[in-house]
Amino acid sequence: MVNLKYFYSFIYYFITIIYLETVFKIFTNIKVSFSNIIFIILFSITTSSILYILSSIFNKKINKIITAVNLFMLSTIFTSQYIYYKIFNTFYTLYSAKNGSQVIEFWKDILLLVAKYIHIILIFFLPFIIFIFISNKLISQSKLKLRKIPLLIFLASTPYIIFFILINYTKENLFKKIIESSSPIYTVQNIGLLSTIKLDFYNILFKDNVQSKALETFNTHEKNIIQSKNKVKVNDYNVLNINFDKLIAEEENKIIKELHSYFKNIKPTQKNDYTGKFKGYNLILITAESLYPYAINKNLTPTLYKLVNEGYKFTNFYNPIWGVSTTDGEYVACTGLIPKSGVWSFKESSKNYLPFVMGNQFKKLGYKTLAFHNHTYTYYKRNLSHPNMGYDYKAVGNGLNVKKNLA
Predict the structure, then answer these.
(1) pLDDT-above-90 percentage for the chain
(2) Cα–Cα distance measured from residue 24 to residue 35, given in angstroms and rounded to the nearest whole number
(3) Percent of the chain surpassing pLDDT 70
(4) Which residue, 210, 208, 197, 202, is CA-closest to 97?
(5) What is the pLDDT of residue 355?
(6) Which contacts (CB < 8 Å, 24+ apart) does range 161-164 have?
(7) What confidence tier does 101 reach under pLDDT thresholds 50, 70, 90?
(8) Separation in Å, CA 168 to CA 65, 119, 180
């Protein structure tokens, strides 16, 4: 007969995780369905098993310290994600956590939020606080016997087996949606915060597999491209003089060769009445984060008012909620590309050749190209991305003497 006292800490881990996942969803207003709850419970068994093994293989004193550290870290993870959500309206990824030092620049805002939501933070740390008082009753005197570890490993892996079975027998391929989702909020809703972090870690380790799947999708799409060209003058289409046959013949990288083939065969866009209409003009692009209509007033903000009401208005568009706050939206506006989930696409793009972005295009035409930002020069590594786009970049700490504003 199993003596439950040896598994008290496992039970406490499990209750703690379910408790933290529940209050986290309540305080972030994330809605969950019955199936979401089932998945969260299953994955909580896995996490509890792993933590239990780690904190049960030594003597009582060390096990007590490890358990306290584990509980403190769990509360810290949920608290930090909650504060981050309050600032950026999304959750940080492991990639963003590596660059977490830059968030410290918002230390005043963070302190204000901590003070404002101290009662909620205490709720997140409640399991840790309770453990301090009942640790002697929870932690067993004896070490975990080695013969019990395989059973616990089986217990940790079983929820994943059940999860895969349930997912693959549903009408919609929910598993594929979760794995390929670029929205942390979506994965938190379906499998919980801790499992979202695990998934993030998985994507970092196996990103080459993700790229391979993307290439398969790309190849399928390429086969459907209309390769027949209309018999019209070349000047009627937006076509660059690029020898793709030569590029394909000389390229050894499979992915780049596929891209050359794709661009060779895709049907070009046709010129229209607007093509070249603003030739010879200067261009000013303003990225106004969270700009509300209330800020546009004929008397108070006349320049903004003229820009909105005397120019072209694009009213039929779709704007996703990007995963990395401001920088992903700015990346889309400046490059016309879709950001990659889980990384700072702007920072990563600094390693790439970007001849078609506006800065490099205008620079090629002889224009003076300038970029400004009203925050720290190195925030989101814009000091790398913006010069790579062809701009003489100015921000706080590098040629721009203004009061810091939001990133």
Answers:
(1) 32
(2) 18
(3) 82
(4) 197
(5) 93
(6) 162/42, 163/39, 163/42, 163/43
(7) low
(8) 41, 41, 15
Give Cα 94 distance to the centre of its chain.
9
Q: How far apart are CA 123 and CA 20, in angstroms?
A: 9
Give the tokens for residue 352: 């790439």
Could you tell me which residue, 67 or 289, shows the higher pLDDT? Answer: 67
Residues 6+ apart with CB under 8 A from 400: 372, 373, 374, 377, 394
Answer left, alpha or beta for residue 399, where phi above 0 means left and psi between -120 and 50 means alpha.
Answer: left
Pick the more confident residue, 321 or 331: 331
Of 219-228, 268-277, 352-361, which has the strongest mean pLDDT? Answer: 352-361
One-letter amino acid for residue 356 of the chain: F
The closest of 183, 14, 166, 170 to 90, measured between CA atoms, is 183
pLDDT of residue 136: 86
In which region does residue 342 sit, left (phi positive, over 0), alpha (psi from -120 to 50) or beta (all else)?
left
The yes-or-no verdict on residue 12 having pLDDT over 70 is: yes
Judge contact between 172 and 1, C-beta under 8 A.
Answer: no
- Token output for 195: 């499992």
Do 194 and 21 touch, CB atoms closer than 8 A?
yes
pLDDT at 211 over 60: no
Q: Please give the pLDDT value at position 246.
A: 94
Range 336-345, long-range pairs (CB < 8 A, 24+ positions): 341/181, 341/182, 341/203, 342/93, 342/94, 342/95, 342/182, 342/200, 342/203, 342/204, 343/93, 343/95, 344/95, 344/96, 344/99, 344/380, 344/381
